[in-house]
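Q: Could you fold this chain for me?
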Amino acid sequence: MYYYIFEQPRNARERADFEKIRDIAREFSISGEVSQASPARSPEELVQIAIEKNYTTIVGIGDDAHINKIVGAILNANVTYPLALGIISTDPNSLLHERWGFTSPQEACETLKFRKLEKFTIGLIEPNIYYLTSARIECPKPTRIILEVDHWKAEAIIDRMEVSNNLYILLERYIKEKSLIKSAYNWLIGKDNISADQSIFKGKIIKIDSAEPLPVLVGDNIVAKTPVNIYRKINALNIICKRDKIMTDISSNKS
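A: Sure. Below is the predicted structure, expressed as structure tokens.
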């Protein structure tokens, strides 16, 4: 039983794409109840309706922000029966599109029908903000943060920080080219005069603090402010994934 939660379409083309998905889902015998998020009814409310009706598959169709809201609503509901999430990512520039972006509505519906399930780890910002993508801090100027990861603690000056759902941590400090000659040369060849010094590591529990509260964003939404604690929930959610493509070795068929 499928319960589809469409994002509110942003233009006529997206509206037409959503209609195609509905039509092809019926052809693939995976039709179900269709709903659409709106200012009057949020994705979180629609997830609650699906759970109250005991749907075993919720399908989110939309951008990363829409999908993250659905993920959070499912996990905050503490569902007591087996439930799977299907994803059709509609933003080609998003983090989720590589895994859940499709070349056609047919490919998306084939994936939903085949139901190849994988368990995914989900990031959690206390007390109840879940995300499948990443959380980040964008600083208006270089800012000192206090970072506690598992059993070690350190201070760092950053311009940007990102924490994935698996708790990979990226710290960035932007460095401006100081040489006038090299700056001029970079300008002539179209190269940026600002580079990023990056540090990458991984943790299980992350605590972030700062002298002044810094906004923590998931997508374009501010979901918290420092200080924050971030955890991971391992194998927290069953998600339908694309089937592995089996490539035929042409040379092996030659006589």
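A (continued): Residues 246-255 have pLDDT under 50 and may be disordered.
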